Amino acid sequence: MFSMDATLFEIISIWVVLFIAIIGLGYAFLLRYQIMRHDKGTAKMQEVWQAIRLGADAYLARQLKTILPLIFVLTAVLFFSVYIIPPSEEALHRFSAYSSETVRLIVGFGRAAAFVMGAIFSLIVGQFGMRMAVEGNVRVASAARRSFAEALKIAYRSGTVTGMLTDGLGLLGGTVIFIIFGIASPDVLLGFGFGGTLLALFMRVGGGIFTKAADVGADLVGKVEQNIPEDDPRNAAVIADLVGDNVGDCAGMAADIFESYEVTIVAGLILGLALVSLTHELKWIVFPLLVRGIGVLSSIFGTYLVKGEGKNQDAFSSINKGFYASAGISIVAFFFLSMFYMHEWRAFLSVGVGIALAIVIDEITKYFTHTQHPPVKEIAHSSKTGSATLILRGLSIGFESSAWQFIVIAVTILAAILIYWGQPAVFVLYGVAMTGIGMLTLTGNNVAMDSFGPIADNANGIGEMARLEPEARKILADLDAVGNTTKAITKGLAIGSAVIAAVSLFGSFITDVSKVQAQMGIVENLQLFVTGIRVSVPAVFIGMLLGGAIPCLFSALTINAVARAAALIVEEVRRQFRIPGIMEGKVKPDYKNAVDICTVAAQKELIGLSLIAVVSPILIGMLLGVEALGGFLAGVILSGQLLAVFMSTAGGAWDNAKKTIEDGLHGGKGSEAHKASIVGDTVGDPLKDTAGPALNPMIKVINLVSLLAAPILIRYQRSDPRIIVAIVICSLLIFGAILYSKHGALSFKNTRREHGF
């Protein structure tokens, strides 16, 4: 049992946290039951919905087949990874009744099982959440025929199901591992975090390629070439586009935030364990779990408050009301927990700064992407002089937003330093980890806000294709516009949480490496925790440069993948428009072909991109050493943050500028300004929905692989023949993955041949 030196309050609290996790999952299934009782509308609405559902199911089934073999291989690797290094002191203490070899076996099985559990939980969050979004969209469209309030409630609560699954499963996994392994849980939690992060990378990259290939292809041919509306049923890619919204923004984002949720708790417990060794108090590793439990309860309360009242209710203000209510409850609860359990104010300030950071990032993202603020209006105004000036204005805004978010995150880390001023460095790192945990306190609300976007978008598409009444269409269009903003906000939050989580893992990396160095007998003055990551050392600087290059390479390959896949969709949609009767509406397009092309394209790109993220830190560690690997991590975090914020914000601003023009600004739909804005939106689509968001899990995969590999790499000399062979293999894998992603992943001809059309 976990109760080593634990007080009665701590024992009871951990079981209460476990019960709260179950309550969160129960709330998710309660909401699902309520939503499924609503009707699915007319036969035409259900026909469109059925096409979306079948496309989503086909994508999820193929994705599962693609990633399962790699999961099996990595499960074995994680099991055997514990055989290379001796068990930690904490593991020997926790399982003191067993021999060292038995303890090694227990930890090995625990890490492998935790990896599988993390992967399965991430998969459940993504797949179940996406299916719930598909169930909700048609019901939202039907509810819009009756009232704004009902449509808003169904849309938001459909998203809340995914949010509470993220909360409940993340808390359940971490708590169960802690109950079983106690102070040895950080060794096992690394597997849990890695499983969730790797699946998030798969779902983010695959979903992003699918959704933007469909969206770009549909817009270029439908809107620009044929001058027809966005969700016109004559467009062969329209169903693929609607499926893609769920694939990218439900499955992908939910898995993305879930793994941030996991990773911050992993970092918090690793650093908390270091403080337990210093202070001999268990509170440092119990506190993060209690904070997470409070967050689940506050999210339940806040999300239930989101209800529309009447036709003209502002959906965004209603969603904000729930978010701020959850934040207020959390802050008050954290204060009492810190004062009466931790007996200090520093813990409260750390998690409070995290909540403040989430709110500030929300506001910055909202300012740069919301239609009511100057940046989007400036982009829309620049459309009057053509697509070139519009794109330049968007690039400028993307870079500016990156600068402000850099400053905010720097101030946040400075706050952690000031809060623990005068304390050893490990306290500061713990403070940063608590900031990340505080930032993701409202995960239930944040995922609900994100999933609300594609649900409203799909409902609007169903309304367009089913030719609903003008009043219902107006309600759906309003919800869709709000959904665009909530998606942009949660993308900003996901990026910010990725950086804070990565910084926390960076601290864990230094701590864990130093522990292994101490086990090896390396004197304290030469341990990494004392020397730090010295940029003045040439090898470390090289590592930092290579780390900065990886996000650039990753982004280039993902954008290239979208461009290739979108070209296939363009060809397919053009081919179908040439079929007699399509444009007159007498012949129904073959929607399945476009869905199949996107599905095949997304899955063929997955493995190559994932190999780069998994293998690159191992190669750097073997070539340049663990300190240079630390420099590599710093470069990845810095470059990844800059590119992710830039691409997500610029893309979101271009998208909303187009929507303001479609609402009647500068000539409205069909005008020259509108055509310029479509070009900007098309350029921004793969940035904001593929390359930018994919950097979040990539950053954390690289950090977790480094954390898992570093204790092993320390024990081997670079001259060891096995290391030389491993360097050659890793180099070939990365080189092959780059070549495959650049040239060999797919062609129009072989994609069509594979499906026989």
What would you say this structure looks like, in words?
- This protein is mainly alpha-helical.
- The chain has one domain.
- Helix content is 83%, strand content 0%.
- The protein is built from 22 helices and no strands.
- α7 packs antiparallel against α14, α7 runs parallel beside α20 and α17 packs antiparallel against α18.
- It is globular and about 80 Å long.
- The C terminus is likely disordered.
How much is the radius of gyration in Å?
25 Å
Coarse structural class: mainly alpha
Global shape: globular
What is the number of helical segments per DSSP (H or I, 4+ residues)? 22
Uncertain segments: 745-757
Work out the strand percent. under 5%
Count of individual beta strands: 0
How many domains make up the coordinates? 1
Compute the average pLDDT: 84
Give the topology, please.
Blueprint: H1 8-36, H2 43-81, H3 89-94, H4 100-143, H5 148-181, H6 185-225, H7 238-279, H8 283-304, H9 315-342, H10 346-369, H11 374-382, H12 387-419, H13 425-439, H14 443-465, H15 470-519, H16 528-531, H17 538-577, H18 591-624, H19 626-662, H20 672-713, H21 721-744, H22 748-755
Would you kindly provide a brief summary of this structure?
With 757 residues, this protein is mainly α. The protein has one domain (8-755).
Please name the defining characteristics of this protein.
single chain, 757 residues
